[in-house]
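We modelled the chain as a single entity of 188 amino acids. Its sequence is:
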Amino acid sequence: MHLRYVNKLGISKDIELTGDPLSIGRSREADIPLLDDKVSRVHCGIRLSDGEFYLKDLKSRNGVFVNGQRVEDTAKLKPGDRIQVGSTVFVLESATEKEDSAKGLAAVQGAMNDGKGYTTILKEIVDDIEPAAAENKPAAEEKPAPKPAGRPAIKISSPTIKVSSQAKTDPAGDDKPAPGKIRITLKK
């Protein structure tokens, strides 16, 4: 389990929760020190007991909240819980971004080892994402944007490329290519 939060400098922090108790507070001795006047010196603690993590309010002045509810003494934590200490919000997660990325990369590598190519894997990823995106779209159909009127269509012609192995010379005879070379002519 990991505790993720953004510090006062805007840097995302990820703390791994282990069997050791973890303290949060304004004190420099706290495991997670917070520079916040609304946080007590030793505000709260998180500990592991019987395979579950628990949050304990350590008689803080302004309290600690889990998912918006004030913790009177102790609260059992589960993945996804939002813990508010002063103005800092912590999120309890089961895996870090690095672990999730490593799992995704291992899955792609495994699929490639099974003979799938990049194109097939990317198509499968897009196919997995598209149904979720379709569920989030509103039911009303969107009309295509009207075409602007009053402007004629612009037609752009691409140049023709002519490659010849026999070089031609101009009437003055000055434009003679070297033997074995080819001449490329662009015409509109």
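As a brief sanity check on the tokenised model: The CA atoms of residues 104 and 110 lie 10 Å apart. The first strand starts at residue 2 and ends at 6.
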